[in-house]
Amino acid sequence: MGGIELSVIGYASAGEEGVHMAANEYQVRGMTCGHCEMSVREEVGEIAGVDDVQVSAQTGRLVVTAAAEIDDAQVLAAVAEAGYSAVRV
Known about the structure:
The chain is α+β, with helices and mostly antiparallel strands and 89 residues long. It has one domain: 2-Layer Sandwich (Alpha-Beta Plaits), CATH 3.30.70.100. Helices cover 25% and strands 31% of the residues. Strands 1, 2, 3, 4 and 5 form a 5-stranded antiparallel sheet that branches. Strand 1 (13-14) and strand 2 form a beta hairpin. The longest helix has 12 residues, at 34-45.
């Protein structure tokens, strides 16, 4: 059977309680290790409304999930506070 690869980046879907979830993806520059990931995860996770933060130093990928629209400026500022730079993709 052939496989189909699905991506949920930027996709809104119904959560467990019927709440629409939004996921935004960013490319972070400068991360090299697990400590880098932890720093970004902690800073971005402090943003009000953020439900989940997935970050990979290997790929530089950051995915932020929230129940409401995510403010890019807040995410970019949080990444900068952690010591890195990012762009929305």
